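Internal ticket #5521
Category: modeling
Description: The requester needs a full-assembly model to guide mutagenesis choices. All entity lines are attached below as received. Residue total reported by intake: 480.
Assigned to: D.W.
Attached entities:
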Amino acid sequence: MPSESVHTVRSYEQELGRMRALMTRMGGIVESQVAQALTAVIESDEEAAQAAPAQDPQVDALEREVETLAIRLLALRNPMAGDLREVVAALKITGDLERIGDYAASIARRSTRFDLADGRISLSGLESMGRLVQENLRRAIDAIVQQDADQAMDVWHADRAVDEYYTAMFRALVTYMMEDPRHIGPCTHLLFIAKNLERIGDHATNIAERVYYAVTGDNLPALRPRGGAQSDLTENVSPR
Amino acid sequence: MPSESVHTVRSYEQELGRMRALMTRMGGIVESQVAQALTAVIESDEEAAQAAPAQDPQVDALEREVETLAIRLLALRNPMAGDLREVVAALKITGDLERIGDYAASIARRSTRFDLADGRISLSGLESMGRLVQENLRRAIDAIVQQDADQAMDVWHADRAVDEYYTAMFRALVTYMMEDPRHIGPCTHLLFIAKNLERIGDHATNIAERVYYAVTGDNLPALRPRGGAQSDLTENVSPR
């Protein structure tokens, strides 16, 4: 029955295509959440501060939808080799995307909890770090959509620069706090914001690793060229 | 050929059993990392501070091993219904466990970066929070091992108390910083340590949700009784 087999193949491809479309949509929303979060902090934009968390339920719903579709694909289509790796990677990647959305929402909420009215605290480091993280995230999501291992590898290498920004920001913020106790409140929030941005970069790197594995069947080296954890070593605050 | 079919079923059960054993081992290591991290902070124990990050590569290797086995199971055994949900949940849960190990390692590393020599900063809140998080994590891992939906539901409800501890600690630490600028260094690290603990609790809750879904086929309500993100709203620091 060749017609039935063609039909089966077609609807299999359709389901895989649908899963990719859901991932792309999820990636798009998460990217917009990160952009809103940064606008909320840097421009003290109340509307953006509300907009990022408001998209959370949609991201959660998409994660579940991808999971349901993946389970269906695994049960009914028994995908093999590259397709199977792609379905498994999708299950993991949606977890990373969901976390990124979470961090973005958390940044946006924090942005309304402090003000920098005295103008002494510069946000230019945060702005540069934010741009870089957004760029990495955009490329990681492109790598998913295009199943592009080279792009994934580039993202994986770029994370080191994010960590360097984070370390510089950490030091600057602690210095502000020591200079004036009135800076302690806002700088504490900014410390968490910087950390959340660094974590977003970390998850973009995770996504890149997973795409690379799904496409090539090989793992990137276990030791990353950066270090979400290692960077903590450089936060060597001397308190006196 | 009944003997071959029996053989197939047996080795399928064996592989599923092996996957469960790997998860249990991964859970055990991650639990010990969290215990080491807390000992490192609370007792300024250098050895424990080294021990937690030292286990990271093993956790990463186990995550990959579960993934490889899961892919094999999905490709060759085409598991259905509850078994399929369990394999998919395993892929997600190992991601949560890996993150928990990461947070524990990060706490342990930080513990060596400051000292509380002046004795003014109390760690009793952190100690209580740590005990609760460990308890939740232990129960979440039990729920995986025993595929116990009721246990999972209990963990899910218990996370609210972790958030309350975190909020109280956040306030106390900011107060210490404002009292004496020499507290800014150590308290900044303690803020991150408390946040990491809260995130560990969050991932234990994620695990509980996934176990619940794998066992019952139903999702826990989208709105959690707690709020990793919501708790940020209560960190309303007034800096002046």
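Resolution: model delivered.
Comment from assignee: Chain A touches chain B through 52 residues (CB under 8 Å).
Ticket closed.
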